[in-house]
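From the methods appendix. Each design record in this collection lists the tokenized structure first, followed by the designed amino acid sequence. Records were kept in a plain field format so they could be parsed without special tools. The example shown here is representative of the layout used throughout.

RECORD:
FOLD TOKENS (324 positions):
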């Protein structure tokens, strides 16, 4: 239950002591770098880390750092705040049902434009300010993502959300090609809609695209990508410190828990945390070794969670890996 052990860190104004502390941090990171070098890490980028300029720059630095210590980062992003802003500027109403955006064809044009043409391009530019690393792509490129249309239930009634989907398939070939070329994929979460025109037998499924593109949840898309790539880690940046055992009691932050423990907690969680923790659980169930919820409001939180013994967020591990 406590794969991370919380440790206190002292501060000092002594330059020699400060230098020693920095060296100690680097040495502390060494076994983690050795462990994860050569593996793929999928990072879901969103929340405040996406709209605050300082946090955006820090995130780009983290991704480049991972790349240079031999880890293969894959960034999957949404863009809720930017979509809301653009819809407002264009005078398009944004309706939510059950906490989910109802996506009309008109709104979908904006979602597609903002995610692929604005958010993705800005992130590619930030990463590439450090060198020619990032390559932007969307779930439409090379059949990367496949999605089916999904609704929700509000007060016991099925609700149509329009062009909203759930990722049901990933073809990682395009991502693997970019990684093999030594680049960093940056993926926008829109996906072609598919239908199964077979007889319902999994052995004879024949998926056909409808020609429509769906707005898909970035958390669940990142989990699906992590599973398809056999990633060592899924890291989801969010706007809280991690998972709390007894929200809103800040002292109840959980450092680490197993898939079974999370499965038992899931129905009791706050609605905003359910998609993120469900994504972590899906990734673990499908073979990803570790999944993390990390506070994206803290600069370099992703590195602190990955390369320090104490960690700062919440990690989910398989049941057999109680103390990795």
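DESIGN:
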């Amino acid at each position: 239950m406590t794969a991370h052990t919380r440790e206190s860190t002292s501060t000092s104004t002594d330059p020699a002591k400060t230098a020693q502390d920095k060296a100690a941090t680097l040495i502390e990171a060494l076994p983690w770098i050795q462990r994860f070098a050569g593996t793929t890490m999928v990072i879901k980028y969103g929340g405040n880390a996406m709209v605050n300029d300082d946090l955006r720059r820090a995130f780009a630095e983290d991704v480049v750092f991972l790349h240079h210590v031999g880890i293969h980062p894959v960034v999957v992003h949404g863009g809720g705040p930017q979509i809301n802003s653009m819809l407002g500027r264009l005078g398009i109403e944004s309706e939510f049902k059950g906490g989910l955006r109802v996506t009309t064809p008109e709104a979908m044009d904006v979602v597609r434009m903002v995610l692929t043409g604005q958010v993705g391009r800005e992130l590619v530019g930030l990463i590439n300010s450090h060198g020619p690393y990032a390559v932007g792509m969307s779930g439409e490129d090379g059949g990367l993502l496949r999605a089916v249309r999904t609704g929700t239930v509000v007060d016991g009634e099925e609700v149509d959300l329009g062009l909203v989907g759930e990722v049901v398939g990933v073809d990682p070939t395009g991502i693997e090609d970019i990684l093999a070329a030594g680049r960093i994929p940056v993926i926008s979460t829109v996906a072609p809609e598919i239908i199964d025109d077979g007889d319902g037998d999994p052995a004879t499924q024949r998926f056909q695209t409808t020609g429509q593109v769906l707005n898909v949840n970035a958390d669940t898309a990142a989990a699906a990508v992590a599973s398809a790539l056999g990633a060592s880690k899924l890291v989801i940046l969010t706007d809280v410190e991690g998972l709390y055992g007894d929200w809103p009691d800040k002292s109840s932050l959980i450092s680490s828990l197993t898939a079974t423990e999370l499965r038992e907690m899931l129905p009791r969680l706050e609605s905003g945390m359910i998609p993120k923790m469900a994504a972590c659980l899906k990734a673990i169930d499908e073979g990803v070794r570790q999944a993390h919820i990390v506070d994206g409001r803290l600069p370099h939180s992703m590195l602190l969670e990955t390369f320090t013994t104490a960690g700062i967020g919440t990690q989910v591990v398989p049941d057999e890996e109680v103390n990795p």
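APPENDIX NOTE: The longest strand covers residues 207-216.
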